[in-house]
């Protein structure tokens, strides 16, 4: 994997995930996927549950503090990525191949696979059964989640996307 980008497309009212992959010859290929507000709303809790399950699988003795561990790991990894300038690099528009087509596929289903001490497999599937499988090391998974949070904020979808170990702001009811 070369780069990830999540950007809000106002004309579609969707987030587009772009993933560039470097081929052996150095050329880039790109896969694209649409994320709707509804999908992100359902995906977010599953992503957090997956991270906590991964802590339990890798460190059963620390299962009682899994949400705090996920929160700390996330902060450390994102801080390191920011310090390295990973979030400041512009997305390279140099793809020469689009194995799933240039039009993003509309993600219908997301499946995860988490094994101890292995990257997380994120499988995105459309209604026609086409799928993209991404293997994300923990730092990339946290980066992806941060990109989703930023995209949701830009989209002004009014979704709360809390991370484990933090509390979401309470909603207030108007009478």
Description:
The N and C termini lie far apart (50 Å). Helix 1 (37-58) packs across helix 2 and helix 2 crosses helix 3 (138-155). The protein is built from 3 helices and 7 strands; from the N terminus they run E-E-E-H-H-E-E-E-E-H. Strands 1, 2, 3, 4, 5, 6 and 7 form a 7-stranded mixed sheet that branches. The chain is α/β, with parallel strands linked by helices and 175 residues long. The chain has helices at residues 37-58, 66-83, 138-155, and strands spanning 3-9, 14-22, 28-35, 95-97, 105-113, 120-126, 131-136. It is globular and about 45 Å long.
Computed CA radius of gyration, to the nearest angstrom:
17 Å
What's the pLDDT, averaged over the residues? Answer: 86
Q: What structural category do the secondary elements indicate?
A: alpha/beta
Number of domains: 1
Question: What does the main sheet amount to?
Answer: 7 strands, mixed
What is the number of helices? 3
Number of strands: 7
- SSE order in H/E notation? EEEHHEEEEH
> What percent of residues adopt helix (DSSP H or I)?
25-40%
Shape: globular
Low-confidence region ranges: 169-175
Rounded to the nearest angstrom, the distance between the terminal CA atoms is: 50 Å
Q: Which percent band covers the strand fraction?
A: 25-35%
């Amino acid at each position: 994997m070369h780069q990830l980008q999540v950007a809000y497309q106002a004309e579609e009212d969707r987030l587009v995930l772009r993933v560039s992959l470097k081929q052996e010859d150095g050329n880039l290929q790109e896969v694209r996927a649409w994320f709707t507000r509804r999908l992100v709303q359902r995906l977010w809790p599953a992503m957090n549950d997956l991270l906590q399950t991964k802590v339990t699988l890798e460190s059963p003795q620390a299962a009682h503090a899994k949400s705090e561990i996920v929160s700390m790991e996330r902060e450390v990894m994102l801080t390191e990525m920011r310090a390295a300038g990973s979030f400041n690099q512009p997305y390279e528009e140099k793809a020469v191949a689009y194995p799933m087509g240039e039009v993003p596929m509309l993600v219908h289903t997301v499946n995860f696979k988490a094994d101890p001490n292995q990257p997380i497999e994120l499988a995105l599937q459309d209604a026609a059964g086409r799928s993209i499988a991404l293997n994300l090391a923990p730092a990339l998974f946290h980066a992806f989640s941060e990109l989703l949070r930023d995209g949701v904020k830009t989209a002004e979808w009014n979704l709360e996307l809390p991370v484990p170990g933090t509390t979401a702001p309470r909603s207030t009811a108007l009478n």
